[in-house]
Design goal:
Elements (H helix, E strand, L loop, with lengths): L1 H32 L4 H12 L1 E3 L21 E3 L6 E5 L6 E3 L12 E3 L4 E4 L13 E3 L4 E4 L13 E3 L4 E2 L15 E3 L6 E3 L11 E2 L2 E2 L16 E3 L4 E4 L17 E2 L9 H5 L32 H29 L35 H7 L6 E5 L2 E7 L5 E7 L8 H15 L9 E8 L2 E8 L6 H6 L8 H21 L14 E3 L5 E3 L3 H12 L24 H17 L4 E2 L3 E2 H9 L18 H14 L10 H11 L4 H18 L1
Length: 673
């Protein structure tokens, strides 16, 4: 009898052990499913959403619905795949902002975003990354001051902020960076002494305690500093003795009192940029709380039955709780706050630096002025899904074209405001006979208004003349002059401006014609992309004039010089053929023309049939240039300097050639009559 009871007990205990093992496996799966911190996924997604141009499609596999970001491009995780350790996305032409949410990636060791097109400021929230060892934001377009909170990065060994537009002085709290070995701040607009004074009100926390401001000694406090570069800023004073071991070239191009160093001129130093304050507002987040209920079984008189019931109930309850919660967490998708789609109530959570000095040299019009000039905004000369274009006459001034951005106030974010300012400032620096002249802008809150004011080009767009107007207006000679004008404009944008400027959607719709058919390149494409992104959170967008310009992706051609050169080749083909870049029946223009471009005897088939006369010598050089521009290997495409030289030297637009063409046309007209 005793053996029988022992056997029963052994069987029951084996059964319970199996249940416990099964439950333990379920719990492990549950923990594994939910092991990756949601804050880190949210931070990465927020970073992606603050990037509005990704021409190389680096962030394509950054899927907000994927709970495990360890396989995302540029992201490296810990060996246990439970934390993000590295973000390294360099040289990818990303254009956008640094999301403050990056500060939520607690265990991040390296943040490398070198050589992109990031704008805005360095978020102070990065200062909480206590394990960060490498911060590389060099070669971007960041502005504003270096946040003093950066001094809280007590583990950091390398900071690279070179080649940006940073302003203000060095924060004296940098003395707390005891492990800092490399600091690169060259080619910015920083001012003040290299050895910062301890006059800031901010005191970083070091090991849980606030550092005493009396102990701060600026860069001399960074005892491990071996490499540093402060060149080409606006620093004043002398070179600190504690930095005497650095090469003298690390201090050149400033306003220092050093007779053996090449420094800026007195005029430049007098006009050194002043430091600017910035305002930030932060959002508070609440941690997710998960509660579980405990279930208690009732005891029974028989100890074996009681053991069976109690243990079974507990195991079953734990199993069900683990299974249901795991399924719920694995299947449900965490809600992501999209920085591009914040409502008005969420705007206060953004950290965006608005540079009040950025547009100081650009004319600002009032809505009332533009309303009067454009006849109460009734003189509409163009429209699209994202904008309206009005024609106006300024009192005692030129004719104007006013582009009103069509976006609702609730969709307008701090990111967009900064982008608006940057683009207006960028457009305002264009000054060439073949680029559109920005006269000013309008920015008002009531009613909500964002407008751009351009010099009016009376003959509309090249697209309209090629595909909807009278083709006879664009003779061969006139088309050659338009081509040379576009080439001059692009050469100016790519070579003569620093930094270079590209047309995001270079096509015949971006070329406006003056009264004498002189071409003006106008940049509208980037506005379309950003406005559509803000409302729909979508990627690339289509355009009737630009669908077929790049074989592998539309966005790839929008944002770089080589993409502009490819688009220039397509534009040349459109001008000489009179065909749109894409049509449903015949597909891409470049595919249709390819078989003719390389055969001298077949080149004439490319020419617009409406043209009665053309010069074969011109056609020959144009086909040669088109082939060079559309080379699939972007590295083999010539620069606009070379292309412009080829066209200028081999296309004759002299008066004698034009008169000869005109006389032939008149003779043919006389014979026909």
């Amino acid at each position: 009898m005793k053996r029988k009871w022992l056997k029963i007990v052994a069987e029951k205990m084996s059964y319970f052990a199996s249940l416990q093992l099964f439950c333990a496996i379920s719990l492990v799966l549950f923990l594994k499913c939910d092991s990756f911190p949601k804050d880190e996924v949210w931070a990465l997604t927020s970073f992606k959403e603050a990037i509005y141009e990704d021409p190389r499609l680096v962030l394509t596999n950054w899927n907000a619905l994927d709970a495990d970001p360890c396989d995302w491009a540029g992201v490296s995780c810990s060996s246990a795949r439970d934390h993000v350790m590295t973000i390294n996305i360099s040289g990818s032409s990303l254009k956008g902002f640094l999301a403050p949410e990056l500060g939520r990636i607690t265990y991040l060791k390296e943040l490398v975003l070198h050589n992109n097109n990031l704008i805005g400021t360095i978020p102070k929230e990065l200062g909480v990354l206590k394990y960060l060892e490498v911060l590389d934001l060099g070669v971007n377009q960041l502005t504003g001051p270096i946040p003093p909170e950066i001094a809280s990065l007590t583990s950091v060994k390398k900071i690279n902020l070179q080649s940006n537009g940073l302003t203000g002085t060095l924060p004296p709290e940098i003395a707390n960076l005891k492990n800092l070995e490399e600091l690169r701040l060259d080619r910015n607009k920083l001012k003040g002494p290299v050895l910062a004074d301890s006059n800031s009100g901010f005191r970083p926390k070091v090991h849980g305690m606030y550092a005493s401001s009396a102990n701060l000694t600026g860069l001399c406090g960074a005892s491990q500093l071996k490499e540093a570069d402060f060149s080409y800023n606006f620093f004043v004073g002398g070179i600190p003795k504690c930095l005497a071991h650095l090469p003298r070239t690390s201090f050149q191009g400033n306003c220092l009192q050093h007779k053996y160093l090449k420094q800026r001129s007195d005029a430049q130093c007098v006009g050194a940029p002043a430091p600017k304050a910035h305002q930030t507002l932060n959002s508070n987040s609440q941690p997710l709380e998960v509660s579980s209920k405990q279930h208690h079984g009732t005891s029974k008189p028989t100890w074996l039955l009681a053991l069976e019931i109690v243990t079974g109930t507990m195991v079953g309850s734990l199993f069900l709780i683990a299974l249901l919660t795991a399924l719920q967490r694995c299947n449900s998708k965490s809600s992501i706050i999209m920085p591009w789609k914040k409502s008005i109530s969420q705007k206060e959570s953004m950290t965006v630096y608005i540079d009040s000095e950025m547009l100081k040299d650009v004319m600002r019009f009032s809505r009332q002025e533009l309303e009067a000039a454009c006849e109460d905004f009734s003189n509409i000369i163009g429209s699209s899904a994202d904008s309206l274009v009005y024609k106006g006459n300024m009192k005692g001034g030129p004719e104007i074209a006013v582009i009103s951005l069509g976006i609702k106030e609730e969709h307008w974010t701090g990111y967009l405001e900064l982008y608006f300012q940057r683009e207006v400032a960028d457009l305002a620096r264009l000054s060439h006979e073949n680029t559109g002249k920005l006269l000013g802008y309008c920015r008002e809150s009531s009613p909500f208004t964002r407008m751009l004011v351009f010099e009016y080009a009376s003959n509309g767009t090249l697209y309209e003349h090629l595909h909807y107007g009278e083709g006879c207006q664009l003779s061969w000679m006139r088309r050659m002059k338009i081509i040379l004008g576009i080439a001059h404009g692009l050469k100016y944008l790519h070579k003569e401006l620093d930094p270079p400027f590209t047309i995001s959607e270079l096509n015949s719709s971006a070329v406006y014609l003056t009264e004498d058919f002189s071409p003006k390149l106008i940049e509208f494409g980037s506005w379309r992309i950003i406005l559509e992104r803000s409302e729909k959170n979508s990627g690339s967008i289509g355009s009737q004039g630009a669908i077929c310009v790049q074989l592998n992706s539309m966005e790839e051609r929008h944002l770089d010089i080589q993409g502009n050169i490819y688009a220039f080749g397509i534009l040349l083909l459109e001008i000489i053929s009179g065909r749109p870049p894409f049509c449903k029946d015949k597909g891409c223009l470049v595919d249709w023309a390819r078989e003719y471009l390389e055969l001298p005897e077949a080149m004439s088939y490319v020419v617009d049939p409406e043209l009665k006369h053309f010069r074969y010598e011109d056609l020959e050089v144009l086909c040669e240039v088109i082939n060079l521009c559309v080379n699939p290997d972007a590295t083999k495409r010539p620069s606009m300097v070379e292309l412009s030289s080829m066209l200028e030297s081999r296309i004759d637009t002299s008066m004698s050639i034009e008169m000869k063409a005109s006389s032939l046309a008149w003779a043919e007209l006389a014979l026909a009559s």
